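Cross-check.
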Amino acid sequence: MARIPLRHGAFLPPFHPLDENPAACIDRDLELMQWLDKLGFHEAWIGEHHSAGWELISSPELFIAVAAERTKSIKFGTGVISLPYHNPLMVANRIIQLDHHTRGRVMFGAGPGLLASDALMMGIDPDTQRDRMAEALDLILRLFKGETVTEKTDWYNFVGARAHILPYTKPYPEVAVVSSVTPSGGRLAGKYDLAMICVAATNPFGFDALGANWKIANDLAAEHGRMMDPARLRLVGPMHIAETRAKAMENVKFGFERYLGYLNNNQLRFNVPKGYDAAEWFIENKFGVIGTPDDAIALIERLYAKQGDFGVFLQQVHNWADFEQTKRSYELYQRYVMPHFSCDNGPRTESFDWCTDHRDLLSEKRASAARLMFDKHEAEQKAKESATEVARPLPGKDAW
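Predicted model, tokenized:
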């Protein structure tokens, strides 16, 4: 069992088929955030995309601003802002403002941008994105700290730039970098002491890269005299759970194949062999879970066996099932998966088991106490009757 209390959340790209009303899709995403908040999930990360049709949110900050107003305790992260697409000073100012709006319920997730189609629309060479992300992140962290920056590169020019208000969270909100296959995320996390989000923790290339990138982060942190904190490591994986595996498989017929179709449309990631059921092939290869709460527990324990301690498991929001069954999946996770890892029910179980082990003794004690109560009651009744006899007046002279 982990030494670090496991937190739970969601990673919302989001994924929505092309035949649905886009406004209604975004409304459902907001409703899902409210549902997660009600269930006690700890955090949700919201993606940024500008092309390919399915992932509708272009500004995670706007979405978070609305979602924060409709929720009470869940924290929200940008998952992620694609830094090469934005002026770094503008990003810093927006995150600082959002930190104040939410009274500290915001986290800043940064990445290079995943979809090449996004970059090409803006005339950005995808080969430059990771270097530009590193440049922007360094500058944003300096602005968060209140520094004044004069700096010129091939894509921005700052002359005495500074944030005119500082973050609500001191010294600034939690900052996370995304990591999938390349070492860029691990390098930045280690250099700047940042959180890390492994967005492909449950698929083979992500599963293998996780250990390598975490090692890179730790090695670079050690060069700076630090250690990486596994409590800030977040692992993302897709799952849908129901009361039975058969029901879960039936539920995902709603949208699973369309989900794979979208992922393969941008880049061939999942090549289902001919003649295989896509969902069955997916779970056979352990890309995620379509099953029961026990299957969800097994997946997370498999990640522990591979990685060791980590801080947060984030469910990828995928809309494999219709909305009601999707909400049901998160409810089952809250009811049965969360308590397994928090061990909240340990004392309850120990108490129940102790009673089982001592049932004979407890039964005898209960019976003995009941007998004593009956005996006491009978004794009191007899004492009352005796007292009544003694107090009864003597007969008058007429009675003789």
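The first strand starts at residue 7 and ends at 12. The chain has two domains: 7-346, 350-388. Passed to J.P. for a second look.
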